[in-house]
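During the second half of the funding period, the structural biology subgroup turned its attention to how the target accommodates small molecules. The most pressing case was pyridoxal-5'-phosphate, which had performed well in the primary screen but for which no bound structure existed. We therefore specified the complex as follows and requested a full 3D prediction, including the ligand pose.
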Amino acid sequence: MSRVYNFSAGPACLPVDVLKEAQEEMLDYRGCGMSVMEMSHRSAMFQEIIDEAEADIRELMSIPDSYKVLFLSGSAHHQFAQVPMNLMKNGVADYIITGNWAKKAWKEAAKYGKANAVASSEDKNFSYIPDCSDLPIDEDADYVYICENNTIYGTKYHKLPNTKGKILVSDASSCFLSEPVDITKYGVYYGGVQKNVGPAGMCIAIVREDLITDDVLPCTPTIMKYKSQADKGSLYNTPNCWDIYICGKVFKWIKKLGGLSAMKEINEKKAEILYEYLDSSKMFRGTVAKEDRSLMNVPFVTGDKDLDAKFIAVAKENGLENVKGHRSVGGMRASIYNAMPIEGVAKLVSVMKQFEEENL
Ligand SMILES: *Cc1c(COP(=O)(O)O)cnc(C)c1O
């Protein structure tokens, strides 16, 4: 077996320990004679899996009882619609546009009501987070929406916007469980799991209980009502059982490392190795305003397309996969999520250094 260092933005690398455990349990989950993939979602055994997963994420994130944790089939894209359907009671919402994902969410919301773009960083290709201390928040806004970590552009809110008392909704897909968060600052905090938690096909939404009601937009399909899932413990439909199981293992893996504070320390160490080199390099440079840098996604360029392509090829030869940047930034992007070991980042930097020496 030979594993590469996978810098993909998502689906992304998973902890090897988690994959091994799943492998060991694949054919016979704890003596029941079947795989979790084959198990009834109404069985006691699966109930234990989902209950434990919920208890562990609640512990990790210190989620108060006044919030529900929903394991929702689908992806972050589903939330682009599900959020306005459930929350747009006045028919108004404010969006802060810091990249493609925020923009897509904003455009989707406009199908259901008045979606205002109250700030944007598009003028500089989304390379920074706008000043959000005094935004023109609509008096009637049902919520203010952000994409907290911008996967494509590599920016992160290091300070949450001043919502002037309005509910904050956050797409935290690419920074989910990367550091401690104060859930009480949000109405809805959600993430598609395939960036930093588990396999693609599920979204975890942490929703304040008072926002979970039958008072949703009339067009809302039953399955898209938060209340449908909240009332049934995320088992309204047949859930993505396999995903819940793997996410549960990742929660335990993070707990074993020491929880989210420890995870943050590790992530900071990894990011520092890369950013420090980028700041000293004469060939490579980061594309983002320093104060808004993400710990998870690090885009960088040489400024020369051919050189970028050459580097991506050299990286691949060295077992560093998926370092090609997103087309809207170009160059390279290293996604260094929780499961990327520090050795992977060190290897990337050593390959970059050597490449710089040989090609400058
Ligand atoms: C990847 C990503 C999405 C889209 O995820 P899907 O699973 O394809 O719906 C949305 N928001 C953010 C921040 C992402 O990183």
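Two results from this model are relevant to the next phase. The two ends are 35 Å apart (CA to CA). The first helix runs from residue 16 to 25.
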